[in-house]
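ok so i was messing around last nite and threw this chain in just to see what happens. nothing serious, just curious
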Amino acid sequence: MNGGASELAPPCINQNLAVLISDVHIPLPRNEQKYRTGMEYPWIIGQVKKFVGEILALRPRPAHVFCLGDVSIAFSEEREYEIAAQLFQPLEDAGIKLVMTVGNHDLREPFMKHLGKWAGESPVPGRIASVTRLPDFDFMILDSLKEPKSGDRGKYDALTKCELGDAQKEWLEDTLASATRPIILAAHHSAGQLGIVKTVVRSPQVFGYMHGHHHKWDQAYLFSGYSHTTVVRSQGMPSFGIDRDVGYALMRSLPDRVELKYVARDYYFPRMVAAEERPPLWDDIVRDNSSRRVAFPFTK
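result:
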């Protein structure tokens, strides 16, 4: 009996373990699209289900899943967020806390309608920003979405911009100035795109920056010029199923650093998915990326 009871015990949740995902890009079939995307993406839903299943199978389970935006495939149709909520609900049901923000393919109104319970408690009105207190550091997510004008819905050219806005910049600077714990900053866009490299590098408490948008496991180093010797590591995330680097990252917190491990699942370009032969280079890229690790020491 004891053995049976032990087998039925719920999986342990590790507060020092989290998963980072980005660029989910939930699609609709073409006949349901109000704003045409130019093609269909029938594989994405299956990929997301598979990856959610992998996260649920982790032992121990992560305490958090952080999503860095672009839930929508392109033009932020409401049904896409309904589907996303259904796909991610099993994580919450398993005791994993989701914290999500928006990317340049999202709109805040439909996002908040269907995913708002996972947006965190935003300290900036009108923005989906959050600060999650983890055992050894704070994970601080910024909202970098610049929404297109209503007349530009359905145009890809209107999705190329990003911004923090004055209120969020002021909150960011005030928060960093008063911070006493180590901080990782994250957003959908890179620090360079947002014009905050100096802010990141010159804060004594910020020891890392993470972002999505490029669909690449992309390592970079931020510095603010030759007269300032501090360097902060920046890491781009793979997509959660649409194209190029495909997978997610495991983030493990240790007393003196954070370690990020890339769980590489694939590499491809959408228009070539149905090709008769898979280019050998794609498999080489996946092998090169598999289990890549990045360390973020708490000291600069």
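not much to say yet. The mean pLDDT is 93.
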